[in-house]
Amino acid sequence: MTTLLQSCLFLLVLSNYLLLGTRRVAGMTRLTAFQGLLLAALLLSLDHALLAGAVLLIKGALLPGLLWRTQKRLPADALICPARRVGFGVVFSIWLDGKLVMPLGLYPPLLLPTGLATLFCGFILIVGRIKAITQVIGYLVAENGIFLLGVPLMTGGTVWFELALLLDVFVAVFVMGIAINHISDSFASIDVARFRSLRD
């Protein structure tokens, strides 16, 4: 199980790099679904079968499905976004992991820096991308990082809290999807960079 855990963490870090370097929203959606699959496998390696099934269903299938449905209603120019390759988040996460004082044995090896790197990747996507749908994907990736940081706290009494958190994410992304649809129906572009051209 340790090999599976380490493999999932390595692939999560790799998917973060790919998310930052991908220009097409379709590719980012696939990577988001892949991260959901990796989170489910990671939980399975830690003997959280029930939560792994919920994560696979929600993060691996349902949320990417909503993103795919939203993409079909957007114009073609909204599905391509300039990429920004930023490796600072991963380096900072490794440095921060060495500085934080944690109880011995709380986090499996590499889990904390991977969670922090995923969180920072989500923040970079939210702040650095100019399309509304890519910012929604960034929100999902950031939540994946928060989820990873909460993995050691998943005892028998906290599983239901984690399921409630997943439900909150589902509702938030559903509302964001509706908002993006309404924005694209009302305006010619959903590029937030065009706000710079507004005048009094």
Label this structure with key terms.
globular, 200 residues, 0% strand, mainly alpha
What does the model show?
- This protein is mainly alpha-helical.
- The protein is 70% helix and 0% strand.
- It has helices at 2-21, 25-45, 49-72, 88-99, 111-128, 132-149, 159-186.
- The radius of gyration is 17 Å and the shape is globular.
Number of helices: 7
Low-confidence stretches: none
Structure classification = mainly alpha
The backbone outline, from C-alpha atoms, is: globular
Q: What's the SSE pattern?
A: HHHHHHH
What percentage of residues falls in helices of 4 or more residues? over 70%
Number of strands: 0
Tell me about the biggest sheet?
none
Report the radius of gyration as a whole number of Å: 17 Å
Strand content: under 5%
Q: Distance N terminus to C terminus? A: 60 Å
* Whole-number mean pLDDT: 79
Please write out the topology.
Blueprint: H1 2-21, H2 25-45, H3 49-72, H4 88-99, H5 111-128, H6 132-149, H7 159-186
Helix pairs in contact: 1-2, 1-5, 2-3, 2-6, 3-7, 4-5, 5-6, 6-7
What is this structure, in a nutshell?
With 200 residues, the protein is mainly alpha-helical. It has helices at 2-21, 25-45, 49-72, 88-99, 111-128, 132-149, 159-186.
